[in-house]
């Protein structure tokens, strides 16, 4: 996993445990489900250290009356993460992927994942990514929240550089809920694509509902795209997604 830096905001004042701060925080999957998933991986490893799926059987865990398929879809049904969507060719967005989303992600044949939360990446996600040769980048952002916490523009630029690189695609970008931090990055992609402001904000609000943040929309509007445009030109990267 490649980790850039974790930021609490421009002011240097720690993120206060407000309702909005709690809303942004990743809530770990319950221990029982994680342990069952990790056990299923151990049972599926063959002598060469690779997943042995030739029998095609489904390993499941029954937890809180819900059946979770760990390694395969159930009857061909895949469960995407919440707020999942295709942004453009080679780039997807979503909330934080959970265990029951793994078969869906496997079907996308991802090369990379860009995570925007500062919390430590869960072991179950690390295992899934390692097995499927998915490279993980992590840029920990604090969401735009009044009055002190703001996303640093240079971190968004770092994120866009990762997303623009065709060697990282197909790539999934996610934060916790796939609403605000992910919405800011996608909004800046739309700026690069010359979308109108009304279209950008309509898309942002559709995924952020019912918690749209004016500071996010202000950030998208004010973000200076010149640096990332120059980076793309210098590296012969195309904006025609």
Automatic annotation (TrEMBL):
Keyword Transferase: no
Location of the Tyrosine-protein phosphatase domain: 83-232
Matching PROSITE patterns: TYR_PHOSPHATASE_1, TYR_PHOSPHATASE_DUAL
Enzyme Commission code: 3.6.1.52
Keywords: Hydrolase
Cellular component aspect of the GO annotation: cytoplasm
Protein name from the UniProt record: diphosphoinositol-polyphosphate diphosphatase
């Amino acid at each position: 996993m490649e980790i850039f830096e974790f930021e609490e905001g421009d002011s240097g004042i720690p993120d206060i445990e407000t309702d909005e701060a709690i809303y942004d925080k990743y809530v770990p999957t319950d221990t029982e489900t994680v342990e069952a998933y990790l056990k299923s991986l151990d049972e599926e490893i063959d002598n060469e250290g690779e997943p042995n799926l030739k029998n095609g059987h489904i390993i499941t865990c029954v937890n809180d009356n819900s059946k979770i398929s760990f390694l395969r879809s159930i009857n061909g049904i895949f469960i995407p993460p919440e707020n999942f969507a295709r942004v453009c060719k080679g780039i997807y967005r979503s909330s934080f992927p959970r265990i029951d989303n793994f078969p869906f992600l496997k079907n996308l044949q991802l090369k990379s994942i860009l995570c925007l939360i500062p919390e430590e990446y869960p072991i179950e996600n690390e295992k899934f990514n390692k097995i499927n040769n998915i490279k993980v980048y992590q840029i920990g952002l604090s969401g735009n929240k009044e009055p002190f916490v703001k996303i640093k523009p240079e971190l968004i630029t770092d994120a866009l550089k990762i997303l623009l690189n065709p060697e990282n695609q197909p790539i999934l970008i996610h934060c916790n809920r796939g609403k605000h931090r992910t919405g800011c990055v996608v909004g800046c992609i739309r700026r690069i694509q010359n979308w109108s402001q009304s279209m950008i904000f309509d898309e942002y609000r559709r995924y952020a509902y019912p918690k749209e943040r004016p500071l996010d929309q202000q950030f998208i509007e004010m973000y200076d795209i010149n640096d990332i445009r120059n980076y793309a030109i210098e590296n012969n990267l195309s904006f025609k997604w």
